[in-house]
Amino acid sequence: MNAGLRSLGGGVLASVLVFLLGPFLLIAVAGLNAGDTLAFPPSGLSLRWYAAVLQMDNFQASFAVSMGLAFASTVLALLLGIPC
């Protein structure tokens, strides 16, 4: 493969990754804000917003459902995939 095309492909891949993962990284960093409102860059560092989310009943219930589905799909994929 041509070196120019390979570097172009790497640049496109990096751009797509930044486009897809960039917003998640910004939200994760903004969630560390110690203030009462969303601000970027954070004025101070705190985990209180993450602790508040973990204490919400709706989050805990949906997280339990997600983990149950992940476990069940993993077991099903293993049961179907290993014989193949």
Offer a few descriptive terms.
about 80 residues, about 0% strand, flat, mainly alpha
Topology diagram in text:
Blueprint: H1 3-30, H2 48-54, H3 57-81
Commentary on this structure:
It is a single chain. With 84 residues, the chain is mostly helical. Helices cover 71% and strands 0% of the residues. It is built from three helices and no strands. The chain has helices at 3-30, 48-54, 57-81. The longest helix is centred in the first third of the chain and has 28 residues, at 3-30. The mean pLDDT is 89.
The overall strand count is 0
Structural class computed from helices and strand pairing? mainly alpha
Compressed to H and E, one letter per element, the order equals HHH
Number of separate helices: 3
Quick one: biggest sheet?
none
Mean pLDDT: 89
Provide the β-strand percentage band: under 5%
Query: Shape from CA axes?
Result: flat
Please bin the fraction of helical residues.
Answer: over 70%
Task: Put the structure in a nutshell.
This protein has 84 residues and is mainly α. 71% of the residues lie in helices and 0% in strands.
